[in-house]
Specification:
The complex is a heterodimer.
Chain A: H1 7-27, H2 30-51, H3 57-81, H4 86-90, H5 94-98, H6 104-136, H7 143-168, H8 171-195, H9 202-214, H10 224-228, H11 235-261
Chain B: E1 4-16, E2 23-35, E3 39-43, H1 50-57, E4 65-70, E5 73-74, E6 84-87, H2 99-109, H3 114-127, H4 143-155, E7 161-165, H5 173-188, E8 192-197, H6 200-206, E9 209-214, E10 217-223, H7 224-227, E11 234-240, E12 252-257, E13 260-265, H8 268-280, E14 284-291, H9 295-302
Parallel strand pairs in B: 3-8, 3-9, 6-7, 7-8
Antiparallel strand pairs in B: 1-2, 1-4, 4-5, 9-10, 11-13, 11-14, 12-13
The chains are: A mainly alpha, B alpha/beta.
């Protein structure tokens, strides 16, 4: 024990151990492989569908493939994310973990990083399969991995939302709230554009703008159309998306840590 | 170095009532002083507040009032848990891990290095009687094996203080004896063991000191020797060659077998009177056994409904 790490180093070692355990939990679960098999089947199905349509097969495979990839990984992020904290409490496994010299923030962070590692594996596997299918139809492009990067940013935000709700409420409420955030996140910018000019009251207008900034704007992370139409992505666009994601995730994880640190583990 | 392993002062804790109506007072001002190097039994009926107290000590619950220190450190500080090992009641573990993986995981949470863990884990599995079972997934462990691996994880960091919540609950007599022996060996190593239990026989066998908790308050605490060193409650006197028809001058006949008699008397002068009477009638005195209060008597005298 004399060589045991101290302070920040110990905190990072604990976070890494928790993340590795979260990753192991997922990859040893049967659901993980069922989901992967389902995702593979959906991707193959989208390739088959391209045979039945008129137009560029590669473009259709990219469109359908990225939509399927996004949908399945988003559902994984939401439905696994909402149980990240709650199941530990429900199964009482948390008693052994938090009775160790460990901060609750490390627990939250460890679970989050572990989940993001699981999603990275999921996403990468699906993108590789999509790439293989595209290569089969002679339409391979590395841009699907750029699109994958943006999907990953979206997953980072959604997992943080799911984890926040998981640390304060039950899985059912968490699922409803996270799904609501997902839907609002994809529609808020369009809503603001169409509603803001109609609001005449300056206070109401300001409130609408503030609400828009408070809710996640997931549209800025959606590049499927840009990729499938082969439009170049500006560096500023990517940088903005990355900074936005980091800031939003940091905010949510801080809120989750604050809420969870006050929680009694009865 | 602080002389106390655990110091609890005025600990109070309430929980929301059913449907969030009202508050339930789980702890109503618990005070405890546990010296280092002893086995300390924390006794009480179900619902007395034992687990709530232990969860406060383990940092899982925050008290409404009062505080607690482990080895001189406040329980609100992470440092308090560095030299402490905790086994919750009916421990639940990640069933997708093997026993050895679980211990390595908890070792890492204590900041232990892989090299230290590769030596510590097999020896710990051997200590708790799970040698050769380390590669088995926890979902295949029996209840007794889970309790043992739970004890092993509580000892992974070589703690100075071990807190166990009902460590013998649900175990068969052999399992209970093994846990008792392990607790005794921890004391022999100089560690402090603080455990909650409602199995009084186990506590009486191994505890140096006890506290009895009832309705969220400590109603009695101290060394078992002192607590049970009160007056003798009664004496059992065994007589031989007692004339069958004759009634002893004092006491109550508890058992009779031919000319042998077991008589119970409640006063010390009655003992002498009966011995004198036996000698005068030519009977023999086989034994005189004084009976002091047991831990069970002490326990029942302090908990509601126990004096019935």
């Amino acid at each position: 024990m004399s060589n045991a790490p101290k302070g920040l180093s110990l905190g990072w070692a604990q976070t890494r151990a928790l993340a590795a355990n979260t990753f192991r939990e997922s990859v040893r679960s049967r659901v993980f492989y069922i989901l992967m098999a389902f995702a593979a089947a959906m991707l193959v199905f989208s390739a088959v569908m391209s045979l039945l349509t008129i137009g560029s097969r590669a473009k259709i495979i990219i469109d359908l493939g990225l939509t399927v990839t996004s949908f399945i990984t988003v559902m994984t992020a939401i439905f696994v994310g909402i149980g990240l904290i709650y199941t530990e409490i429900e199964k009482k496994t948390i008693y052994n973990v938090l009775s160790k010299p460990l901060g609750r923030a490390h627990f939250i962070l460890g679970r989050y990083i572990g989940m993001m590692a699981v999603l990275a594996v999921n996403l990468l596997a699906m993108l590789v399969l999509l790439g293989l299918l595209l290569a089969l139809f002679k339409g391979f492009t590395f841009k699907i991995f750029i699109a994958g990067g943006f999907i990953y940013l979206e997953l980072a935000i959604l997992t943080a939302i799911a984890l926040f709700f998981s640390s304060v409420t039950s899985p059912v409420v968490s699922a409803i709230c996270t799904m609501a955030f997902y839907i609002v996140g994809h529609t808020s910018s369009a809503l603001l554009e169409s509603l803001a000019p109609r609001i005449t009251d300056p206070v109401g207008k300001a409130a609408a703008v503030w609400l828009f900034h408070l809710l996640p704007d997931l549209n800025i992370l959606n590049v499927t159309n840009i990729i499938s139409y082969d439009i170049p992505i500006a560096h500023g666009f990517t940088a903005r998306a990355i900074i936005y994601t980091i800031a939003y995730v940091a905010l949510l994880l801080t809120a989750a840590c604050m809420a969870f640190s006050r929680r009694d583990l009865v | 170095m602080n002389a106390l392993a655990i110091e609890v002062t005025g600990l109070e804790k309430t929980f929301k009532g059913h449907l969030s109506i009202g508050r339930i007072h789980a702890l109503r001002g618990v005070d405890l002083k546990v010296p280092r190097g002893v086995i300390y039994g924390f006794l009480g009926p179900n619902g007395a507040g034992k687990t709530t107290t232990l969860k406060v000590l383990a940092g899982l619950l925050k008290p409404d009032k009062g505080g607690a220190r482990l080895l001189g450190e406040s329980v609100s500080e992470r440092k308090a848990r560095e030299k402490m090992g905790f086994l919750p009641e009916t421990p639940y573990f990640y069933d997708y891990l093997t026993g050895a993986e679980l211990l390595r995981f908890f070792g890492k949470l204590h900041g232990m290095q892989p090299k230290a863990l590769s030596e510590k884990v097999p020896s710990l599995l051997k200590t708790v009687g799970l040698e050769g079972k380390g590669d088995l997934p926890l979902r295949k462990y029996s209840k007794g094996m889970l309790q043992r691996v739970g004890l092993a994880q509580a000892l992974i960091n070589e703690p100075e203080l071990v807190i166990l919540d009902e460590p013998m609950s649900g175990l068969d007599p052999i399992g209970r004896r093994e846990i008792r022996d392990l607790i005794l060996s921890l004391r022999a190593e100089g560690k402090t063991v603080f455990f909650s239990s409602h199995i009084l026989a186990d506590a009486e066998m191994i505890c140096d000191e006890v506290a009895i908790l009832s309705q969220g308050r400590v109603v009695s605490q101290g060394s078992l020797e002192k607590l049970l060193s009160g007056e003798v409650k009664f004496w059992d006197i065994s007589l031989s060659n007692w004339a069958a028809a004759e009634k002893p001058p004092v006491g109550e006949i508890v058992a009779r077998h031919e000319s042998q008699l077991l008589v119970r008397v409640e006063k010390e002068d009655e003992v002498q009177a009966l011995i004198d009477a036996a000698r005068a009638s030519g009977a023999g005195v086989l034994s005189v056994t004084p009976h002091k209060a047991s831990l069970e008597d002490l326990f029942l005298s302090h908990v509601p409904g126990g004096a019935r």
